[in-house]
Design brief:
Blueprint lengths: L5 E4 L2 E5 L16 E4 L2 E6 L2 E5 L6 H5 L5 H7 L8 H6 L1 H10 L10 H12 L5
Antiparallel strand pairs: 1-2, 2-5, 3-4, 4-5
Length: 126
């Protein structure tokens, strides 16, 4: 493998670096470790391993969080089981979820709020 080439390795990708082919912001740093939503980048010996983070989707991850009673209580305003409605009101929904004022029978665990936050930050995949 030539320096700077990318190769697939299961669910990860390794990037070999070479000072003449790699921009300075990708230069190896043996002390580098970063984690966010289960992803990490580790630099050691001039190599980085990037772990793939699955995308959060409305159909698989968001809609199942909303119970039938949640949907019914919000139907006068919008439909929590409608992707288009939830995308249109995503910021207000996240604000209420994070504040613990939605749903009305008690706050969600922070892990569930983080799923909605990740979905929004990833671009609201259907």
């Amino acid at each position: 493998m030539l320096p700077g080439e990318v190769k697939a390795n299961g669910a990860s990708t390794e990037v070999s670096s070479a000072s003449n082919l790699t921009p300075s912001y990708l230069a190896p740093n043996p002390d580098c470790e970063m984690a966010r939503h289960g992803s990490s980048v580790r630099g050691a010996g001039g190599r980085y391993q990037l772990e793939v983070v699955p995308m959060t989707s409305y159909a698989a991850d968001i809609k199942p969080l909303f119970r039938e009673r949640d949907r019914e209580s919000m139907l006068p305003h919008f439909d929590l089981w409608s992707y288009g409605d939830v995308v249109q009101h995503k910021d207000a929904i996240l604000t209420r979820l994070a504040a613990g004022t939605m749903p009305c029978d008690g706050p969600w665990p922070s892990e569930q709020v983080d799923i909605v936050r990740a979905w929004i930050s990833q671009g609201t995949l259907a």
